[in-house]
Amino acid sequence: MSQQTIVIPEEWTAPKYQLGQWIKQGLIVGIEYYLPNSFRGNKYGAGWIYWVMPHKDSEDTETWSEESVKPLTEADLQEMIQKEVNSCNTKIAALTEQLELIKGVQQ
User: Fold this and answer.
1) What phi and psi values does residue 7 have, to the nearest 5 degrees?
2) Quick one: which of 29, 33, 60, 31 has its CA closest to 44?
3) Could you read off the pLDDT of 47-90 as tens digits, one per residue?
4) How far apart are CA 44 and CA 57, in angstroms?
5) Annotated domain spans of the chain
6) Strands, E assignment, the chain
7) What gap in Å lies between CA 50 and CA 62, rounded to an integer?
8) Is the pLDDT of residue 103 over 90?
9) Alpha-carbon dihedral 14, 26, 22, 43, rounded to 10 degrees
């Protein structure tokens, strides 16, 4: 996988969270910066806004200010990853069984 680089202007603060990171609210799929003294900065507050899918099959996204983002604990993240691994293993087992059935029919 190639490493991509995003350059953030020096006068902006660096975002605390990154694209693809799971947080309590869901998966971060976008990041936007609202400049101070801009329309959006004055209306919503200056700083980073995160676009979040509540779960991986969501059609909609939600926006959260950096102050509102709730990071996952290490235990929560491990549990979530383990559930995903288990789900993938179940799918692999089912597909392997189907493949074996197909091979058995062809012989």
Assistant:
1) -100, 125
2) 33
3) 999 999 998 788 999 999 999 999 999 999 999 999 999 999 99
4) 28
5) 1-71, 73-106
6) 22-23, 26-34, 47-53, 62-65
7) 8
8) no
9) 0
| Token duo for residue 38 | 């801009």
Triad 9, 13, 15: Cα angle to 5°: 105
Q: Which residue is associated with the tokens 């605390």?
A: 16
| Identity of residue 86 | N
Strand partners, 27: 22, 53
Cα–Cα distance for residue pair 26/103, rounded to 1 Å: 41
Contacts of residues 59-66 at CB distance under 8 Å and 24 or more positions apart, as own/partner, are: 61/29, 61/30, 62/25, 62/26, 64/25, 66/15, 66/16, 66/17
